[in-house]
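Researcher: Structure prediction, please.
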Amino acid sequence: MNTVQYLPAEDLIERGLEALMQALGPVETMRFLTLSQPKRLEAVKRHQQWQATLEQKEFFDQIFGPE
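Model: Predicted structure follows.
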């Protein structure tokens, strides 16, 4: 069985930045690194939004089978 050798974090960061710089150039690399992530909705709010789209009978039929 082969053992996987991971790069040290510093090397991984350096090689990743070099690859980005080569592929995108300095401006787009910085833009990529500073992109903001969309905020996730709180789990309860997500669940409530999902529930609001459900048809109760259809959902129960899928889970428990038709009456």
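Model: The two ends are 53 Å apart (CA to CA).
Researcher: Thanks, that helps.
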